[in-house]
Design a protein that fits this description.
membrane, transmembrane helix, transmembrane, ABC transmembrane type-1 domain-containing protein
């Protein structure tokens, strides 16, 4: 009977030990769950860091795009302004040349008319008959020569002069435009592009 009691007590004690072991296993499982939660938090932090890096890269790309767009817009505006100025200068020069030629032609015609209408009659009245005939012939010949000469100048030489002047102006304008374009390109390549690179690298 004593042995049976001892065995029963031992069984009870071993049974209690088994219960304690189960509790220890539960605690270990809880610790494992906590470790898993910590790992998940670390992964979330890593993902947040990656997102921040991606945002920084996107900001840098956006800034670079904005700088490039601004440079292109400035270059286009400069070229357009230069072209407009050149066109305006050409038009003004051509108009001035045509106006000058027209004024000269009108002035010549007025002089001829004054000679024929005013000077010739005055000469006829003042001079004697023989002198009148000679003067009239001379004046008529001079008037005819002047008229023919001015007509030739107005019809042939005048347009030729205008064409020559226009061609010269066009050549000068083309040369000036070419020089301006070259200067703009050089400035963009030598100044603007390095500035953009420095700004991007600095940021």
């Amino acid at each position: 009977q004593r042995r049976q009691k001892s065995d029963e007590e031992d069984d009870d004690n071993y049974g209690d030990d088994d219960g304690d072991d189960d509790d220890d296993d539960d605690d270990d499982d809880d610790d494992d769950d906590d470790d898993d939660d910590d790992d998940d938090d670390d992964d979330d932090d890593d993902d947040d860091d990656d997102d921040d890096d991606d945002d920084d890269d996107d900001d840098d790309d956006d800034r670079l795009v904005v700088v490039v767009v601004v440079v292109v817009v400035v270059v286009v505006v400069v070229v357009v302004v230069v072209v407009v100025v050149v066109v305006v200068v050409v038009v003004v020069v051509v108009v001035v040349a045509v106006v000058v030629v027209t004024v000269v032609e009108v002035a010549v015609v007025v002089v001829v008319v004054v000679l024929v209408v005013v000077v010739v009659p005055m000469v006829v009245v003042v001079t004697v008959e023989v002198e009148v005939v000679v003067v009239v012939v001379v004046v008529v010949v001079e008037v005819v020569v002047v008229v023919v000469r001015e007509v030739v100048v107005g019809v042939v030489v005048g347009p030729m002069v205008v064409v020559v002047v226009t061609v010269k102006v066009i050549v000068v304008v083309v040369v000036v435009v070419a020089v301006v374009v070259v200067v703009v390109v050089v400035v963009v390549v030598v100044v603007v592009v390095p500035m953009v690179v420095v700004v991007v690298v600095t940021e």
